[in-house]
Amino acid sequence: DYHIPVSGGILKEPATHIVHIAVEMAPIAKVGGLGDVVTSLSRAVQDLGHNVDIILPKYDCMNLSNVKDFHFHQSFGWGGTEVKVWFGKVEGLSVYFLEPHNGMFSVGCIYGRNDGDRFGFFCHAALEFLFQSGSCPDILHCHDWSSAPVAWLFKEHYRHDGLSNARVVFTIHNLEYGVHHIGKAMTHADKATTVSPTYSKEVSGNPAISPHLFKFHGILNGIDLDIWDPFNDNFIPVSYTSENVVEGKKAAKEALQQRFGLRKSDLPLVGIITRLTVQKGIHLIKHAIGRTLDRNGQVVLLGSAPDPRIQNDFVNLANQVHSSHADRVRLCLTYDEPLSHLIYAGADFILVPSLFEPCGLTQLIAMRYGSIPVVRKTGGLCDTVFDVDNDKQRAHAQDLEPNGFSFDGADPSGLDYALNRAISAWFDGREWFNSLCKRVMEQDWSWNRPALEYMELYHIARK
Ligand code: ADP
């Protein structure tokens, strides 16, 4: 069974001390969903009354204005260099920043420079910091290939020392990267998770995973309701809840149209917010832009491509569609968090046609803003989006009502099947569509339940 039963009994136990060792943390050092999860899972677990610390590299490219009470904490010698430890509060969480004198994290970026060596050093230094400062955490939680070394370094060097009470929990956010590190960490971790039940099944045959299924669980990610809150969001024009969703979204759509010089008329607007990588279904995204324009809709895409060839490809596409359909489409090929809020609020649909998707946060954020997800049925998208025509029973089994549109295949006709129904529903029944927006806003995709599942897992790990 991939699900963790939540007994509730854990709430009566004394506080657990959890230390996350991670290379991303939203909003100060975020590249993708991993950064969001570290912050929002930690906040949810802290809100349950537990003690959570985070250890992060001190990147030079980090925006320290989001860190409160930032100050020097201590320094220690290790690995032939001096490591300075800084402390500060991020979103109410205690964060220790490691700054090795050798300048490893002062290279202007989070990823992209000898990452294996830098993050291997970071993991070992983080354990050494805990050891030298006499910390006795109950749980060491590490993430993806980048902090996977914590699992085996702990078992090889620290298990018998001061840190002996700790158990290692390892979370896979994406198995695509660094599978050798992930395999090795799977062997040494006490418990391992990935970020949705369906993805846990999809990867269960992978040789890095299959020998370890007995300690492997799928726990869905949530979103932080304080960070993603249309009632309290500085980046959208009108605050709204499910009660005034129509009014709130109308104002946001107009602001979006105004900002990009799109025609200010009542048309279905498809939003796409994504890293532009093969995983995210690039060919389907391109197809969807054309399809939406054919159906007289509008499209706003916010996406950046780490691969310059893909970025180039989209720059060309942008030039093309901006001249052929200037009043109905805008591709913003950049990373822009404030703009993402306005798109989540102003779009009618958020499209996520991923080829695979461990959990996916965009569809969850979309629903929080009353936008209807149109997704490919894979991984966490399958666990969170229930098609209005095809998934009633599956939704009811989870005590939910259907909340979006989905498709199976990875070809344009699959995408058309979902997108055409979505756009038709918008044109043909605005009252029904508006009630769907209200309904998805009221669904709970927060960390409330997943945080309990993690606590249950920590509890089992310590037994
Ligand atoms: P992944 O981690 O694979 O990138 P997720 O769906 O788990 O995908 O998380 C994506 C997160 O990054 C979401 O919070 C989304 O809003 C944000 N995001 C992705 N691309 C951009 C962008 N170009 N600008 C702003 N935010 C983005």
Automatic annotation (TrEMBL):
One cellular component (GO) term of this entry: amyloplast
| GO BP term (any one) | amylopectin biosynthetic process
Q: Which UniProt keywords apply?
A: Amyloplast, Chloroplast, Coiled coil, Glycosyltransferase, Plastid, Starch biosynthesis, Transferase, Transit peptide
Where's it found, cell-wise?
Plastid, Amyloplast; Plastid, Chloroplast
Molecular function in Gene Ontology: alpha-1,4-glucan glucosyltransferase (ADP-glucose donor) activity; alpha-1,4-glucan glucosyltransferase (UDP-glucose donor) activity; starch binding
Similarity section: Belongs to the glycosyltransferase 1 family. Bacterial/plant glycogen synthase subfamily.
Instruction: Kindly provide the name given to this protein in its UniProt entry.
Output: starch synthase
Which species is this record about? Phoenix dactylifera (Date palm)
Gene symbol of the encoding locus: LOC103706113
The full protein's residues present here are 646 to 1108 of 1108
